[in-house]
Amino acid sequence: MYKLIDSILTKFKPCFKREATFQTFVVLVIGMLLRKDTQGISSIVSTLRLKSKFYFNLIHFFRSKAYEIKDFKKHGLRV
Q1: First-last CA distance in the chain
Q2: Full-model pTM
Q3: Which residue, 51, 31, 49, is CA-closest to 41?
């Protein structure tokens, strides 16, 4: 299962201008897959047992200029 998830997420790597932004994307996706509730970013931070300072990094991801939604469509994600 991990190999499948990795292969899917890796296809989206070219969508990101920075490695750190891609890594944040991966953390968000994995967090969404594993979380037990739907309390947003807070549940991802809690589920992955991240330090609270990462909450703001994850929030910032959604306003980042390091990717464009249109690029996701090229790599298979329908938005």
Answers
A1: 24
A2: 0.84
A3: 31
